[in-house]
Amino acid sequence: MKLLYTIWCGFWLIIIFLILFPTMFICLQRRQWKPYAHWLNRLWGKLFFPLAGIRIEIEYRYKPSTDKAYVFCANHFSYLDIAVMGVILDNYFAFVGKHGVKNIPLFGYMFRHLHIQVNRENSQSRVSSLNKAIKTLSQNRSVVIYPEGGIKTKQPPKMHYPWMDGAFRMAIHQQVPVVPITLLTNYKILPDKNPIRLHRYPMRAIVHEPLLTIGLSSQDVSLLRDKCYQVIDEELKKHHLLKN
């Protein structure tokens, strides 16, 4: 049954994207049209989850303003984490994601033209992606980043540590708030292991109060990073204890 459910979900994930892609492709051809491509990306997720029978449960302890820029930071245990962000957030944002995504047919084209790629093994690529993210924030567009630097933990819901500094450097540089997001159940819906199998759990997430950066300097990067980590870690531990 899990295999059949996975095939069902994969079918709708691909079909919806293929239906939306021609319009998305047109919207990616001009900078001023890219927000519409982003909206289509969000629509992709909003259509997929109901068809997959996955209930969305989001607790907004803070509702981000759509006319302000933020750095959104979340834990990263599952590839589903990328798809859900467009459902969780109404903001126009850019992901900072690994450069290998560009090799995925069609999806890679969209990602390359709409988001920020980084090769975390290459120092020049890391610097370039940081500069692009800072430029993105300066244009009043938010950035979504997973500070663990990929799906690295082997024991979710325990996060990989230490986190990378980039998200917090860009937030302090632009003096924009950092908004922690706890993704509670994605690793249960789509675990990072073979064979790939989807499971029917509600997608639960918490959008936390922002961590302000006004008045902070580069010397405060570690403090801000650890504070964000603590907010998410405490919620993951609390949720895990409640379930056990």
So what's the overall shape?
globular
Low-confidence stretches: none
Portion of residues within helices: 40-55%
Biggest sheet strand order reads: 1-7-6-2-5-3-4
Number of domains: 1
CATH fold-level name: Glycerol-3-phosphate (1)-acyltransferase
Q: Structural class, from helix and strand content?
A: alpha/beta
> Strand fraction band?
5-15%
CATH architecture: 3-Layer(aba) Sandwich
Please tally the β strands and state the result.
Answer: 7
Mean pLDDT: 95
Question: What are the main properties of this structure?
Answer:
globular; 7-stranded mixed sheet; single chain; 8 helices; 46% helix; 7 strands; 244 residues
Summarize the structure.
This protein is an alpha/beta fold. It has a single domain (54-243), classed as Glycerol-3-phosphate (1)-acyltransferase (3-Layer(aba) Sandwich).
Chain-wise SSE layout:
Elements lengths: L1 H26 L6 H18 L4 E5 L10 E4 L5 H9 L4 E6 L8 H8 L1 E3 L4 H16 L3 E4 L20 H9 L3 E6 L2 H4 L13 E5 L13 H23 L1
Parallel strand pairs: 1-7, 2-5, 2-6, 3-4, 3-5
Antiparallel strand pairs: 6-7
Helix pairs in contact: 1-2, 2-3, 5-6, 6-8
Describe the protein's architecture and organization:
With 244 residues, this protein is an alpha/beta fold. Helix content is 46%, strand content 14%. It contains 8 helices and 7 strands. It has helices spanning 2-27, 34-51, 80-88, 107-114, 123-138, 166-174, 186-189, 221-243, and strands spanning 56-60, 71-74, 93-98, 116-118, 142-145, 178-183, 203-207. Helix 1 packs antiparallel against helix 2 (34-51) and helix 6 crosses helix 8 (221-243). The longest helix is centred in the N-terminal third of the chain and has 26 residues, at 2-27.
